[in-house]
Amino acid sequence: MKSNNLIVLFFLISIVQLAFSQQLPIDFSDSSDNFNFWGGSTFAIIASPTDSNNSVGQFERSNSSSEQGCYIDLNRSVNLDTENTMTLMFYAFDPNSHTIIVKLENGANPDIELGVTTSSQNIWTELTYDFSTIGGSGAYDRLTIRIDDGSTTPGTFLIDDIHDGSIPTDPNELDVIYTDLVWADEFDTPGDVNQSKWFKQTQAIIPGFGWANQEEQHYTARLDNSFVDNLGNLNIVAKRETYTSPPPENITKSYTSARLNSKFAFTYGRIDVKAKLPAWDGTWPAIWTLGKNINEDGGFWDAGPGATSNSANWPQCGEIDIMEHGLGPINHTSSALHTNSSSGATINYSSQEISDVAANWHIYSVNWSPDQITFLVDDIPYYTYNPAVKNLDAWPFTEDQYILLNVAMGGISGSIDSAVSSGTMLIDYVRVYQNNSLSLDEKSINEFRIYPNPTKEIINIKTQSNIDLVEVYDVFGKLILRQSKQVNAINVENLDSGLYLLNIYAEGIKTIKKVIVN
Global pTM? Predict the structure, then answer.
C-alpha cells in the first residue's frame, strides 16, 4: 500500500515488464533467466543450434546505437571476495571478432567490467573473466552484458552457462526462524476492535483531497467499516455510500472503509496474517507496515497518542507490503518494498496467483531479519529482498515498523465495479513472532526451551514449570495432536514436513512456539 502522494503505480503493465531476479549459475533453463535490454537490443531464450534440447540466451544488436546491452538483477549477489572469476559460453553466426563485456553493478564498491575479444563462428567458446586482475572485490546485484561497444553493425549472438563457481542455493530460504509469539490479536471478542491494540486512522493525508494514489474512499472509525464478528473475525468493510468527512476537512466521497494502525511496533521478526480478501474490481486490500518514525499527520505514531520523534517522510521511513490485491487480475497478490532507492512503481516486488482469495483462507507472512526480508503465502517463501548495499536508501529497515490493515477503493487499482455495494477483508488473526524477546507473557517465553528445532522425530521441552497440556496445530489452525502425559517430549515423526504451532499450557499460562518438522 503506497503512502506517497498521488504516485501512480502502473502495476498491470509492470507485471509484464517484471525485472526477473536470478542467481548464478545461469543456464537459461527457465523464464527466470530472462535478461532485460536497452539501446535497441533484444533478448530471447531459444534452443541451441548445436543441441535442440538445450536452451540458451539470444542477444541481438540493432544498428540503432553504439552501446547496447542486456542485464539481469540477481537475488543472490555475485561476491568477488569469494569467487573472483566468471566464465560464460559464447557463440556467433559470423566470422568476425567480437568483444563481450561483462559488467557488475549495484554493489558497495564502484561498478566494474572486463572485456574479452574472440571469434567464434558456429562454435561454442568458453570465455573467462578474472576480476582479480583489476582489483575486483565486494558483492554486486546486477550482471550486465554488452557486445561490440562503439559499433552500429547489427548481429545475433548466443550465450550460455554464465558461472562464477558458486553453488546454487534457495534464494528464498529463511535465514532466521522466529518462534516466540510476542504480540497477537485473535479477534475473539465481538464488537469494536481492541482499542488497546488498534488505532483507526481517519485523517486524510492529502489536505483538501483525501488519500494517496487517487483513492476514492474515506476511512472512518465507525463500526460499519471495522468490527469483530461473532465468528471471531475482524471485518474491514468497504462500502458504497456518500460520506462527508467531519470538519475541518468536509470532503465528500462515494465510498467508506477502514484503515487500522497497530499500537505495537517492532524491529525484526515475522508477521502472520490469516485473511480472506474482497475480490471485486476496484477493491485494494492491503496488509503492510510502515516505519514508526514516519511523518504522517493523523497516524497513531505521528502527533497522536503514539507520538514519537518523527524524522522521516515516506519512503525514507521504509514500507513493507506483505500483501496487496487489486493491482492485477483477480487472485493475483503481490509483495513489495518501498525505500528511497525505489518507491512508487518500485522495482523491488514480486507477485503470484493463488487459489480463490475470497473463498479460501490464506496466511500472508513476512520474515524480516537484519539481513533479508522474505515474503510467504501459506508458509511458502516466494520473494526475498536482500540488497548487496544496505545503506539508508536501500535498507531503512533497522528501526521499528508498525502494522496497517486497510481496504482502499479505486484509484490505481482500477475502475470500481458499479454492481457491488460492499466488500470485506476478513482477518482471523494477526501474529508477530520474534526470538528471545518480550512476549504475550514475558516469563513464559524465557521458561520454555524447545529443541531441536527444526526436528525430524522428537520435540523436547525444557522448563522449570509443570506442563499440563501440549497441543500441535498446523498453520491453518487445525489441531494435529494433543498430549497431556509425558509432555516434555513430543513425537512428531509421523507429521508431514512443514511449520507447526506448539501450544504449551503450564500453571495457568499458555505459550505458543513455532516448530519446524523436516
Answer: 0.72
Q: What distance in Å separates the CA atoms of residue 144 and residue 103, rounded to the nearest whole number?
A: 5
Work out the burial of residue 496: count CB atoms within 10 Å of its CB; fewer than 13 is exposed, 13-18 middle, 19 or more buried: exposed
Name the nearest CA neighbour of 513 among 468, 485, 471: 471
Which of the following is catalytic: 215, 216, 319, 471? Answer: 319
Residues 58-95 as b or e (16 or more Cβ within 10 Å = b): bbbbeeeeeebbbbbbbbbbbbbeeebebbbbbbbeee
pLDDT tier for residue 444 given thresholds of 50, 70 and 90: very low
Residue 319 bears catalytic tag: yes
- Specify whether 324 is catalytic: yes
- The C-alpha cell 516448530 sits at 515
Backbone angles phi and psi of 233, in degrees to 5: -125, 135
**Cα gap 127→92, rounded to integer Å:** 13
Strands laid side by side in the 259-266 sheet? 198-200, 259-266, 401-409, 283-291, 319-325, 332-338, 349-353
Q: What is the per-residue pLDDT across 36-67, written as a single tens digit (0 to 9) for each?
A: 999 999 999 999 999 999 999 999 999 999 99
Determine the Cα angle at 421 with ends 214 and 413, to 5°: 30
Cβ-contact 172, 374 below 8 angstroms = yes
Q: Which is catalytic among the residues 215, 216, 296, 324? A: 324
Grid cell at residue 33:
533467466
What nine digits make up the cell of 170? 534457495
Question: Under 8 Å CB-to-CB from 391, ≥6 apart: which residues?
Answer: none
Query: Cell numbers of 9, please?
Result: 503505480
Considering Cα of 485, then 488, then 491, then 495, what sign does the dihedral take? positive
* The pLDDT of residue 303: 58
